[in-house]
Design goal:
The chain is of the alpha/beta class. It folds into two domains: 130 residues, NAD(P)-binding Rossmann-like Domain (Rossmann fold), CATH 3.40.50; 119 residues, 2-Layer Sandwich (Dihydrodipicolinate Reductase, domain 2). The chain contains ten helices and eleven strands. The strands form two sheets. The chain has a six-stranded parallel sheet with strand order 3-2-1-4-5-6, with helices on both faces. Helix 2 links the parallel strand 2 and strand 3. It is globular.
Length: 276
């Protein structure tokens, strides 16, 4: 993350845009106590829905519209619907602040945000999320990566209603055995599965880009976990990695995604950091 300065109270103010499993998990962790950070504000499409939950926090954050968050915080955690990414991230990076982005797929259609951040001293951070090994991919990319291929297998409910399935009239609700529903690039997957494959875009950004990163997606009625396997060929190493993620209360999101955001936040002022 960019160089961060603390407030006079010696705390960086964090805003969270979106109160699904990821946003709530991060908010609760900050509220419980995290060195150098304070939960300053939250935003949600339906704030009243979260009234009781907000009341259980030790310190009540301001509940604001997304257009007001940048005035209340130094860092924003974007974990909202992908269509809102631009309106959440732009004010922060334009003011030289930090945006932690979970809707990585939406970055591909808003890549000018990277230039806005560069010009103004801001930073966009994509957490590891549901995938292991991004440190290894990032390191390999300093040299030359020849190929990256990812195979994702998900329970049916984790892929339901994806635009790609609707546009191609693919019915997975009644399948009895695994079905390959997509084979293409990470960029194509981000468009067709905007709520499901942010992990593939994060992989592509760490490595050889969204047009050279290849992806297969399988719907599997026997699965209860999201399964990802990645194979990388490079001039420094050949490696494979796989992970089985337990879904959160939102079947499209793994529990470990929220934990990766918390781990990232804890690194900011930790006396020791492990990993890139």
């Amino acid at each position: 993350m960019a160089s961060l300065s603390r407030t006079s109270e010696n705390k960086l103010r964090v805003a969270i845009a979106g109160l699904g499993p990821i946003g709530k998990g991060a908010a609760e962790a900050i509220d419980a106590g995290m060195d150098g950070l304070v939960l300053a504000a939250v935003s949600a499409q339906n704030p009243e829905k979260h009234h009781n939950w907000l009341g259980r926090l030790k310190t009540s954050p301001a509940v604001l519209g997304i257009e007001q968050l940048s005035g209340a915080a130094d860092i924003v955690i974007e974990c909202a619907p992908a269509k809102l990414l631009r309106s959440i991230v732009t004010p922060f990076v334009a003011e030289g602040k930090t945006a932690i982005v979970l809707s990585a797929g939406a970055l591909l259609e808003n890549d000018d945000l990277v230039e806005i951040a560069r010009q103004n001293g801001g930073q966009i951070v994509v957490p590891t999320g549901a995938l292991i090994g991004l440190d290894a991919v990032t390191a390999a990319a300093v040299g030359q990566i020849h190929s990256v291929r990812m195979v994702t297998r998900k329970p049916v409910q984790g892929l339901a209603d994806a635009p790609y399935l609707i546009e191609n009239n693919i019915d997975i609700e009644t399948i009895k055995e695994p079905l390959k529903i997509f084979d293409g690039t990470a960029r194509e997957a981000a468009k067709g599965f905007p709520a499901n494959l942010n992990v593939a875009v994060a992989l592509s950004l760490a490595g050889i880009g969204p047009d050279r990163t290849r992806l297969e997606i399988w719907a599997d009625p026997a699965l209860t976990r999201n399964v990802h396997r990645v194979d990388v060929e490079s001039d420094s190493a050949r490696f494979s990695m796989s992970i089985e993620n337990v879904p959160s209360e939102n079947p499209k999101t793994g529990r470990i995604t929220a934990l990766s955001v918390i781990a990232l936040l804890r690194k900011q002022f930790a006396p020791i950091r492990v990993g890139t």
